[in-house]
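seq:
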Amino acid sequence: MGINQIDKKSYIYLFLKYFVAFWHNRVFYRRIVILNREQIPQNAHLIFTGNHQNALMDAMVFLFGVKGRLVFMARSDIYKKPLIAAILYFFRMLPIFRMKDGYSEVKKNDKVFQKTIDVIKNKIGIVIMAEGNHGSERRLRPLKKGFARIAFQTEEANDFQLNMQIIPVGMDYSNYYDYQTELLINFGKPILVSEFIESYKESPAVAINQIKERLAESLIPLMVHIKSEKYYHLYNELREIYKYEMVKEMGLPSVNQPFKLQADQELIRRLEKFEEEYPEQMSGFQNTVLRFRDNLSAQKLDYEVVRKPAVSKFQLLTKWALLFVASPVFAIGWLLNYFPFGFSIWVGNKMSDRQFHSSFKFAVSLFLYPIWHLLGSIFVLILLGEWIFALGFFVAMPILGILARWYWVANTDFRKKCRWFRLEKQQSTDYQTIKTDQEQIFSQMKTVIS
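struct:
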């Protein structure tokens, strides 16, 4: 498939989309929350754009969060090999050529933009990441002009009669890198391109800047936006350290999404006010928070474990007994399912850009698991010679994988609680340092919140 067929219907693509959606929504993520999807206009000419912090996983947000057909815009350097280019076109992705690609390459944008005009006229949504590339921090970075150029040029090519709309989309990942995390997809109110047409006719450059500013203003309320660069890590760590207290302060029902986003935004707002009024306290506060984080990491602990007193020895023994009884089920599930998931984690963690870790874990596991699952079932059929046993294995394998995952999470939590129990009983220097820093952080946060 080439650029000219990118907006054509394909039953193979449709089948793959449903399979990938299952893997994305039911396997890779533990929970996906979608807000305000009803605000997306139906039967309209649309451009979707959002914050870009998680590489290719951000594209999946639009693919499975938006109902209807979409075409994606991606940077041109990944199209250099013909086979890769063919695959990308099959998956409805168009290249954008940049000045650093060379002037001769940039001229190719004329053909691409003409194709985007055809796509939008056919009421197929265009997805473009307005920041241009992905970042690793929870903030909206300066927007590029590509989305605005596409919007205005498409309107201009149709005598400004399309009534195009730009849909801002905020994305918030509880964890960028791991399996079974939480994802929030937050759709904003459409931005009418028609509001900027008169300005565009007078000065395209002015209109482009105006619509960029409007989009930025629309995206920031939909996401976690930490403006402070100097104290970014302070803000980001406190989102997790103080989340239960912040939720309680605001009267929210839980620390899950969408309430987590509300709590994060309010915490950031109050910290910004505190930073403005007491800038001299921020450096010491950040040092305390980062020391607290690093000491927990050195002890292989986390914020969840140390926010409560260590559990009793009886509770630990009870949990150990339950884990021991369940260990055979874990062992079987782990052996049957380790290769596709373990290999995907190994490959993902090899990527030098951490924001690509989850993308590779997703892609590799998506490719390997069905093959591994099928080969295992065929092996059982050959070994035992009965279809019923092969079918039983086919059904049992993913179930045992789920149980193994639950066991792994429970065992990891148990080991952390054991370490925290041991530190508390020993009253070691490490324990005293962690508790002192924790008390200082919570005391300071009470001042910030009040």
